[in-house]
Structures are given as C-alpha cells and as structure tokens.
Specification:
The protein is an alpha/beta fold and 305 residues long. It contains ten helices and five strands, in the order ααβαβαβααβαααβα.
Length: 305
C-alpha cells in the first residue's frame, strides 16, 4: 500500500516538473520573439529614485544657464519660437513653464494663458484669437493651453459642436504648416498624468490655501470625465501628430523629473549657439560733490523679518 502511494507521488512530481519545463520553454520563446521590443505598458525593473529638492536645484542650474544662452541667441538671430503645452488638468504645465522662465527676460520669453473667450472672439474665425500672440523675431512664446482647447475642453464640455471639432482637426495641420513655413519653430508638448496622481493633486489643491485658486468646477468635471478626455486626446493625436509638427509626450507623475526632462528636450530641439559677448568694464562712480541726503520722512515698510 505504501509503495503504491509513493509511486503515485513520484508520478505526480514528474508530471509537475514536465509542466514547468514546458512553461519555461514557452516563456523563453516569447522572450526571444520580442527581444529588442518595448511597449508603453512595460514597467522598469526598478522604480527610479525620487529626486530630492537639492538634487533638482543642482540639475536645474546648468539648464538655466543654457536657457540664458538660448535667449541671447534668439535675440541675436531673430529666431521665432512657439511652444505649446497641453495636457489634462494638474498635469504640470504651469510648473514647467515657470521653471523655463524664472531666469530669463519676460521681454523675450512671453507666456500666453488666455481666459474664456469674449462674445466677439467666439464670433471670429477660430484661429484668429491665437494668431496675434505668435512670436515675432527675437521672441519665445509659451502657450499654457492653446488652440487645442477646441480638441480638448471645448469638445468634452460641449462648448463646441462635433462639426466644429472635426473642422478644427482637419485643418489644424495646414495652419501649423503655415506657421512653420513663416519661420516659426513650433514645438508641442503633451503632459501625461495618471488617474491616481491627478486625483491626488486635486485633493492637494483643495487642502492647500496656496493652490485653491487652481481648483474650479471645470477641474472637477475633468476628473469625472477622465475617459471622455482620453478619447478627445486620442482623436487629437491621430489628426495632428504629424512629421512636420509632432507631439512630444512628457510623463509627468514625477513633477521634478518631468521638468528636467522637458527643459532638456526643449533645448535639444533648438539649434542655438553661444553668442560672443564683450567683457563689461563698469564705469567709475561719479564724485559726491555738493550732494546731501535730504531730511525726508520716508515711509519705510515694517521690518517684520
């Protein structure tokens, strides 16, 4: 009886081992057939470390130096650069724009963030509202949302008809080609934030008094209509991601990493060069002469810190 039982166990073990061998062989064949390929759904073997503030500032400093070099080249060469930032609410468009502009001149780098269109603007040809903000020679224009409102929020929220949206998607590549042919370097970024991260950032806006101005009824609708926005994004990419004017996607769940990666990529797309500058010789300050400080009751602000 005991021998019979042992025989059964041995047979079962051999069967399991054979099954494992077949499974390993099948996995090996799949791995061989997909070697060198990657998909958007693949996860890295190890999660990337969280970038601390000190490390972020250290990496950002040389990028700011390059941004100033770019600015001087834009002024000297008369280049025209237009950068469009799009993405779901809370994706981080404003944060990247702020890091781009914090060390450069607002007379060269202009940020365009238009509000709700007026009745007059609603009656215009759709692109007419945005054309005046395109860059002239020696300017960089950063759109914090752009004409792509029609493909996104206006479509999802019903502010534009399906016919208007289809017309927009059909003719936008031609309009952008005309912009590019006029000498403008046009760059388009889509910031991709995950569902859970978006919800987390909305909660932060609700709890942080410094951020409550960012939270609007439209934002709440954006969270509720996640998949409507996904469909709108997919249709927008299908129609307007062209070789002449491609969309560049910035994964933005990790905000600091997204900012560093986006600025680095932006700089890589512009063929800027160092502009020679003469050493500055500061003039000698004039003599005081007969000048006397006035006995004036200046209204100094309180010295609280």
């Amino acid at each position: 009886m005991g021998k019979k039982k042992d025989k059964k166990k041995k047979k079962k073990k051999e069967k399991e081992e054979k099954k494992m061998e077949q499974l390993e062989q099948a996995q090996g064949e799949v791995a061989a057939s997909t070697e060198g390929e990657s998909t958007a759904s693949e996860l890295p073997a190890e999660p990337k470390h969280k970038i601390k503030r000190k490390e972020f500032d250290k990496e950002l400093k040389p990028l700011h130096v390059e941004m100033v070099k770019l600015q001087e080249w834009v002024k000297a060469s008369g280049a025209k650069i237009c950068v469009v930032f799009e993405g779901r609410d809370t994706a981080g468009k404003g944060g990247i724009i702020k890091r781009i502009t914090e060390r450069v001149s607002p007379r060269v780098f202009r940020v365009v963030a238009l509000g709700v269109p007026t009745d007059r603007e609603k009656s215009q040809m759709y692109f007419q509202r945005y054309i005046p903000y395109l860059p002239a020679a020696g300017e960089v224009v950063l759109f914090d949302r752009s004409w792509y409102n029609r493909a996104g929020v206006e479509r999802v929220m019903g502010f534009a008809t399906e016919e208007q949206v289809e017309t927009f998607l059909k003719y936008t590549p031609s309009v952008e080609n005309a912009i590019i042919n006029s000498g403008v370097i046009l760059i388009k970024y889509w910031l991709e934030v995950g569902m859970d991260e978006q919800a987390k950032r909305f909660r932060e806006r609700d709890l942080d008094m410094r951020k409550i101005w960012k939270l609007s009824p439209m934002d709440l609708e954006a969270q509720a209509r996640w998949y409507d926005y996904s469909r709108a994004r997919d249709a927008m990419f299908a129609a307007t991601d062209t070789p002449q004017s491609p969309w560049y996607v910035v994964p933005s769940d990790d905000q600091r990493r997204a900012r560093l990666n986006c600025i680095t990529h932006f700089l890589s797309l512009i063929p800027y060069e160092d502009v020679p500058r003469e050493p500055i010789k500061f003039p000698k300050r004039q003599e005081k002469g007969d000048y006397k400080e006035p006995d004036y009751p200046y209204r100094f602000i309180p010295d609280k810190y």
